[in-house]
Amino acid sequence: MADQYKILTLNAISSLGLKRLPTGRYVHGGKVEGADAILVRSQDMHAMEIATSVKAIGRAGAGVNNIPVKKMSDRGVPVFNAPGANANAVKELVIAGLLIASRNLVPALRFVDGLKGDDKTLHKLVEDGKKEFSGVELPGRTLGVVGLGMVGSLVADAAIKLGMNVLGYDPEITVDAAWGLPSQVKKAHSIEEVLKAADYVTLHVPLIDATRNLVNAERIKLMKKGSYLLNFAREGIVNDGAVLEALAAKQLRCYVCDFPAEKLSGHPQVVALPHLGASTGEAEDNCAVMVVDQVRDFLENGNIVNAVNFPAVAMPRESPYRLGIANANVPNMVGQISTAMANAKLNIHNMLNKSRGEMAYTLVDVDSQVPAALIKQITDIQGVLSVRYLPVESQ
User: Fold this and answer.
1) Catalytic annotation on 234?
2) Which of the following is catalytic: 28, 212, 267, 275?
3) According to the model, what pLDDT value does residue 177 have?
4) How far is CA 273 from the centre of its chain?
5) Taking Cα atoms as reference points, which of 28, 43, 30, 38 lies closest to residue 72?
6) Residue 172 designated active-site
7) Per the CB 3.0–4.6 Å rule, which of 31, 158, 382, 383 could disulfide with 328?
8) Please, how many CA atoms are within 13 Å of residue 304, restricted to the half-sphere of its CB?
9) Predicted local distance difference test score (pLDDT) of residue 2
10) How far apart are CA 211 and CA 339, in angstroms?
11) How many CA atoms lie within 13 A of 147 on its CB side?
């Protein structure tokens, strides 16, 4: 009889994604006990007691700050995300932010909302007051893009089509991202180079120790007088106090972000949106479909694609009998695993091992059934974090 997998959903996950889980073989919901995997969007999991039965966590989005990734790594549990699935939604919001800031649309709307009188009076008030909201046009201006992943590349492309010059910086750019980058993007060699040259700066980097307060008082002082700063990446990347000082000194003309904060609240030169970056039906569907497919492939086949804490390891099945082994990245681990299999008279049909930082992962296809005693023997090897037996018969 085929195994049945239990999926705990901590937020409302798009039905389009959940439909990728075959009825009968998968059960899912917000009250599932003994879950094999968890699907989450924004719920904070750091204080949550995560059942030992959980073999994978899937984040229907890009950022994983709400998930205790280190804790899961120590347990040999991959944390999947959906990079790029909401990229178009974020790109469109960034472009909207550029236009909102450049044309002073928020203060202009506030001005109109405060007008009183009949049509003749309103017309006079509008004509007298509109000069206060004169803006600038984008063609010929320089946009600095910090972070050239999927979102950054799409923003760069859209800005070029609007007639802007684009200067990009990303020391960690991947080969795939580089191939997808428009050829007109000029490469910068440091964030400081971007800040000095750009009329507008938009940030598209993850929040990690190296990027926390990436844009601080010292760096904002490098920016052009009267420039614009946009942050649709993560809240902690920009120092709010430094922004307020720069706005008061007219170093910055406007700050547009997707992260309201008490310090920024009500400031006339701040446009703070309620975290709308991925808030489209299309983005929610795309994220859910991507992460559900990844979690399902891991549960059924042990393959790992887009895990933030594991190496990418995907191997076509060449045998009905497969083991997936997560372990610390230490010497002779593969040797110990293969020796244990040889001693059990198991022939290795195919094997793939990769590492990422302190984590390593191995997929092994063998030609005959794997006895429970061997699984326990491999589990007991020092440094092995988890072992999963994935025979086709159980599917």
Assistant:
1) yes
2) 275
3) 82
4) 19
5) 38
6) no
7) 383
8) 28
9) 56
10) 43
11) 22
Same fold, 1-86+280-309 and 311-395: no
User: C-alpha distances in angstroms, 283 versus 86, 289, 338?
Assistant: 5, 10, 43
Catalytic residue status for 275:
yes
Contact 38, 21 (CB under 8 A): no
Task: Check if the beta carbon of residue 353 is closer than 8 Å to that of residue 20.
Answer: no
User: Which residues in the chain land under pLDDT 70?
Assistant: 1-2, 393-395
Q: Of 31, 45, 14, 37, whose CA–CA distance to 289 is shortest?
A: 14
Which residue ranges make up each domain of the chain? Answer: 1-86+280-309, 87-100+136-272, 311-395
pTM, rounded to two decimals? 0.82
**Token pair recorded at residue 21:** 């889980």
Domain 311-395 has CATH 3.90.780.10: no
| pLDDT tens track for 327-340 | 999 999 999 999 99
Rounded to whole angstroms, what are the CA distances from 61 to 42, 84, 283? 9, 9, 9
Residue 207's pLDDT is 85
Cβ-based neighbours of 148, under 8 Å, separated by 6 or more: 156, 168, 169, 170, 173, 177, 178, 181, 185, 204
Q: Of 141, 219, 234, 253, which residue is the catalytic one?
A: 234
Dihedral sign, Cα of residue 82, residue 84, residue 90, residue 92: negative
In the chain, alpha helices (H): 15-18, 69-74, 87-102, 105-113, 119-129, 150-161, 175-180, 191-197, 217-220, 240-248, 281-301, 333-343, 372-379
Query: Which CATH entry fits the domain spanning 87-100+136-272: 3.40.50.720, 3.30.230.10, 1.10.10.410, 2.40.50.140?
Result: 3.40.50.720
* Nearest partner of 286 among 60, 65, 69, 103, judged by Cα: 60
pLDDT of residue 1: 40
1-86+280-309 folds as Rossmann fold (3.40.50)
Instruction: Please give the Cα distance from 27 to 18 (Å, whole number).
Output: 10
Token pair 């428009």: residue: 182
